[in-house]
Amino acid sequence: MSNRIAVVPGSFDPPTLGHLDVIRRAADLYDQVHVVVVHNPGKEAMLPIAQRLTLLEQSVAEAGIAADHVIVASWSMGLLVDYATDVDAGVLVKGIRSQVDVTYEAPMALVNRNLANVETVFLLPDPAHALVSSSLVRQVAALGGDVSPYVPAVVARFLDTGHRG
Ligand code: PNS
Question: Yes or no: is domain 5-160 CATH 3.40.50.620?
Answer without folding.
Answer: yes
